[in-house]
Design brief:
By secondary structure, this protein is mainly alpha-helical. It contains five helices and no strands. It has one domain. 81% of the residues lie in helices and 0% in strands. The radius of gyration is 15 Å and the shape is globular.
């Protein structure tokens, strides 16, 4: 179980780092797709995602305050599922290219990591 959690953590860290950078630094592209949040709102979500991506890996790998890893995963899961709810409300098509599908999958995987690192296999 520990190996599976590390694989999922690494994949989520890369995806959240890329997604967070996109939200924080490519606001003009994002505003064309969905103008629900302001520039500051998307920026804050981007910073949260980038910080969470770092906290998914570093504390557990360095064995320094490993309790931060499940906390970061839980915060990322809540944030991503909230974004999925926004996509569900404002997006009309359900396709593989819809951000709702990806946000929902990433939120559920982050919730799995949070539960796995807290209850099943602490780092």
């Amino acid at each position: 179980m520990n190996v599976l959690l590390w694989i999922v953590q690494a994949a989520l860290a890369v995806l959240y780092l890329a997604g967070g950078a996109y939200k924080a630094f490519q606001f003009d592209e994002l505003a064309k797709q969905m103008d629900v949040l302001s520039r500051g709102g998307w920026g804050v979500l981007g910073v949260i995602e980038m910080l969470g991506a770092v906290l998914l890996i570093v504390p557990a790998a360095a064995k320094w305050m490993p309790v931060l890893t499940p906390i970061a995963a839980a915060i990322l899961a809540l944030e991503t599922l909230a974004i999925a709810a926004l996509y569900a409300r404002y997006s009309l098509t359900l396709a593989a290219t819809n951000p709702l599908v990806w946000a929902l999958a990433m939120g559920l995987l982050a919730a799995f990591v949070a539960y796995g690192r807290y209850a099943l296999s602490p780092a």
